[in-house]
């Protein structure tokens, strides 16, 4: 009897099979079977009540040429009966065996129909290695071809989280900030909560995207960014002998089993029962830290995952270092020579780029304009060197007070701009407070104006003008304060 196509199957069975997540290494195993085998299914009751392993086995029958889903039908008798057969041999899993999971079921199939018990374990290990290495090679090649360091770093995180490769639930990158003496949250990929985790996993299984499609999505930031926005608020300052300090000393990714980490930043992230911290150290220089965990499916981190994570990070850290060097050379022509932040030309180009991207993905973008109060008096009474010193200090404090992905630049004279990609309106007040307080602590009085698209202006190109109007209000409210559309001027407390 010919194997049924998906349209021949009852729709309820087809749906539960399509939604079942199947590890890539098991797909690889069943695609490499030495001889094809057949799967027959009789399902009583609701297909949605099927054990997960049964749904996964049905999906393998749809995906694999070597495991043919020969028949599948709904019957009146309760329960499920699955039969896998080859020549004159067959095996049917009991409910207890299905309850032990798809990996156990796959191993029993191979033991019953093909070889001795230990060979299945070897085959699984080989399949995982083969699939993972091929995917990591694809990802590394993409990074090598990229000229955008930010894009390359998102692809790095995709290699850690993609089910085609290492398959962690979440991954976050923290970059060393000398001014704060901490690793600050820069980029992250992963679900924000349990509901988002299940929505993402179902979408991935139904769409069945290839690794090239997933790389393209991540490289263009086409994913839910709420977890990343949360990571932006986190800083990992190394303690005397906490998890961060241990990871920095470890030559390999460090596997930790702690419900309540010692490091305050890690506690805020609420990692899974097992989590990995890995330092990126090309040529012995620490660039950043990677956190990876399985917070949502609570899967254990197995040795092959840990080993290949170390291999992958070593390779991609070199790519990051090279791209960062290239970026620093290119940006010499893009930065303001006095303050060390972007000049006006580059700032406007980056603003256009971020607004276009946020508009394309229907995400907000906010902007702050800062102006030094009574700057002319500083030049007139203390000289231009004193004025230049104030501008240099503002450039430094803006780097310290803003998020890793914010774009900061000198717009001209004593006016500075902070572009906050994917920051909603409610992040403007905290952002202005951080900048204003830090400036006041250092003896500098600033006026700030802010605005957010689409909350405060109908068109993205109107964002700068709307923020400038807010700055004008702040100046006329007595200086040393900030204005946001719809709010009363507020001082920095």
Explain the overall architecture:
With 493 residues, the protein is an alpha+beta fold. The protein has helices spanning 11-19, 24-31, 52-63, 95-99, 102-113, 117-145, 149-161, 194-207, 211-219, 226-231, 243-249, 264-269, 303-330, 344-360, 375-382, 384-401, 428-441, 463-476, and strands at residues 37-44, 67-75, 79-86, 89-91, 170-177, 182-189, 235-236, 254-257, 274-280, 288-293, 365-372, 407-412, 415-421, 446-453, 481-483, 490-491. Strand 3 and strand 4 form a beta hairpin. Helix 1 crosses helix 3 (52-63), helix 7 (149-161) runs antiparallel to helix 13 and helix 15 (375-382) packs across helix 16 (384-401). It starts with 10 loop residues before the first helix and ends with a strand.
CATH superfamily annotation of the largest domain: GAF domain
- Residue windows where pLDDT falls under 50 for at least 5 positions: 1-7
Residue share in β-strands:
15-25%
**Largest pleated sheet:** 6 strands, antiparallel
CATH class of the largest domain: Alpha Beta
Structurally, how many domains make up the residues?
3
The CATH architecture of the largest domain can be given as 2-Layer Sandwich
Mean pLDDT: 86
């Amino acid at each position: 009897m010919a194997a049924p196509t998906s349209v021949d199957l009852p729709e309820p069975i087809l749906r539960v099979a399509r939604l079942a997540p199947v590890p890539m290494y098991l797909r690889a195993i069943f695609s490499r079977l030495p001889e094809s085998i057949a799967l027959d299914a009789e399902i009583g009751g609701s297909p949605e009540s099927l054990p997960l392993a049964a749904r996964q086995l049905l999906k393998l029958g749809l995906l694999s040429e070597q495991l043919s889903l020969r028949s599948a039908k709904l019957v009146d008798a309760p329960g499920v009966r699955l039969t896998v057969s080859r020549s004159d041999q067959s095996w049917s899993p009991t409910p207890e065996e299905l309850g032990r999971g798809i990996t156990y079921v796959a191993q029993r199939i191979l033991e019953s129909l093909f070889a001795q018990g230990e060979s299945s374990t070897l085959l699984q290990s080989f399949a995982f290695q083969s699939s993972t290495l091929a995917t990591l090679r694809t990802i590394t090649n993409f990074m090598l071809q990229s000229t955008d360091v930010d894009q390359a770093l998102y692809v790095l995180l995709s290699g850690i989280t993609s089910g085609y490769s290492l398959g962690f639930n979440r991954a976050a990158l923290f970059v060393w900030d000398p001014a704060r003496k901490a690793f600050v949250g820069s980029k992250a990929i992963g679900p924000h909560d349990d509901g988002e985790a299940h929505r993402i996993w179902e979408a991935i299984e139904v769409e069945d995207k290839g690794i090239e499609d997933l790389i393209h999505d991540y490289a263009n930031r086409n994913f839910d960014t709420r977890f990343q926005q949360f990571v932006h608020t986190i800083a990992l300052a190394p303690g005397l002998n906490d998890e961060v300090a241990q990871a920095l000393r470890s030559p390999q990714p460090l596997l930790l089993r702690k419900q309540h980490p010692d490091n305050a930043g890690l506690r805020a992230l609420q990692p899974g029962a097992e989590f990995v911290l890995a330092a990126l150290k090309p040529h012995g220089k620490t660039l950043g830290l990677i956190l990876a965990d399985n917070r949502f499916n609570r899967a254990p981190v197995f040795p092959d995952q840990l080993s290949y994570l170390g291999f992958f990070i070593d390779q991609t850290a070199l790519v990051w270092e090279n791209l960062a060097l290239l970026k620093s050379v290119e940006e010499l022509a893009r930065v303001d020579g006095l303050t060390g932040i972007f000049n006006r030309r580059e700032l406007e180009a980056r603003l256009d780029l971020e607004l276009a991207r946020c508009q394309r993905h229907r995400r907000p973008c906010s902007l702050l304009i800062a102006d030094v109060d009574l700057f002319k008096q500083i030049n007139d009474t203390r000289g231009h060197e004193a004025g230049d010193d104030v501008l240099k200090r503002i450039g430094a404090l803006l780097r310290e007070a803003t998020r890793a992905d914010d774009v900061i630049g000198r717009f001209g004279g004593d006016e500075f701009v902070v572009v906050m990609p994917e920051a909603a309106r409610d992040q403007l007040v905290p952002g202005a407070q951080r900048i204003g307080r830090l400036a006041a602590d250092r003896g500098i009085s600033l006026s700030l104006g802010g605005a957010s698209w689409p909350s405060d202006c109908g068109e993205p190109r109107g964002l700068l003008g709307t923020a400038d109007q807010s700055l004008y209000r702040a100046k006329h409210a007595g200086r040393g304060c900030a204005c946001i559309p719809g709010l009363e001027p507020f001082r920095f407390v």
